[in-house]
Each structure stands twice: as C-alpha cells, then as structure tokens.
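In response to the reviewer comment on reproducibility (Comment 2.3), we provide here a single inverse folding case reported in full, input and output, so that an independent group could reproduce the run without further information from us. The structure tokens appear first.
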C-alpha cells in the first residue's frame, strides 16, 4: 500500500488586517484514493452478503410466526432471491407465491380475513417493518466487521 505524501508549505496572506504567516499541510490524495477504491470494491459484495442474511432472517420470522398455514403451500412458497447489484445499489427481493401458491397476494393483503393468531395478513410486511428498526446500524456494524475483521 502506498504511503500518503505530505508536503509542508508556508506563505503570507492578508485578510482585512495585518499580514499573517501561515503554515499548512498538503496531502497527495492519489494513494488514499486507491485505498478507498479498493475498499469500495470489497464493500459491495460484503454488503450484498449481509443484506441477504438479513432478508433470510426476516423470511424465517415470517414463516415461523406470521404466515397463515392451512396446507403449507403458502408458507413453503416463501423465498429470498439472490442479491442484485446495480452500480452502488444492492437489493434483495423476498416474497411468497408462484405456481404452488398463486393466492399469496390475496392472503397477504386482505386484512378482513380471519387468521389464527399469531398468523395474520401482512405476514411478510410485519417482520420487514420490525427488522427495519436498527437495520442500518446492524448492517454498518456487520459491514465494518466484515471489512476490517
């Protein structure tokens, strides 16, 4: 890794008053930029991995606590897709449905349907909202540990 180069300079400057003698430091940013670029390249895959783990945890809570179960097809259709990266943005999609449970959206959205507690409508939305509290802090802490540790 390149070591940043410091250069000391001196000068005199006049600002509406007496002349002042100034000292300053100059930093060659090229080595630092290379380090930051390398960190950024490592950060996106690490963030994708951590976001995927968070989504898996949300899906687990959804399936084990909130998802209504009659025959199990709806619960079994719950899935988390692999992370997608577009530039600096990383996203993970999770959901229910498909050929085995095409009715998933209706069960999720119809709040008038009766479900045996603790199952309910909004069975994916609720654990996502619960996980949102502190999500950024958890991801930042985990990303720091992944990158530094």
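Designed residues, in position order:
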């Amino acid at each position: 890794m390149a070591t940043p180069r410091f250069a000391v300079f001196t000068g005199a400057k006049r600002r509406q008053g007496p002349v002042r003698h100034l000292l300053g430091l100059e930093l060659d940013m090229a080595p630092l930029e290379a380090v930051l670029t390398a960190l950024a390249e490592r950060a996106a895959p690490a963030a994708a991995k951590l976001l995927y783990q968070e989504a898996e945890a949300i899906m687990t809570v959804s399936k084990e606590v909130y998802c209504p179960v009659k025959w199990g097809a709806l619960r079994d259709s719950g899935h988390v897709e692999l992370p997608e990266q577009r530039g600096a943005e990383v996203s993970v999609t999770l959901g229910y449905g498909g050929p085995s449970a095409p009715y998933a959206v209706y069960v999720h959205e119809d709040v008038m349907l009766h479900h045996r507690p603790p199952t309910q409508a909004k069975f994916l939305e609720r654990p996502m909202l619960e996980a949102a509290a502190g999500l950024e802090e958890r991801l930042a802490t985990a990303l720091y540990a992944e990158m530094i540790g």
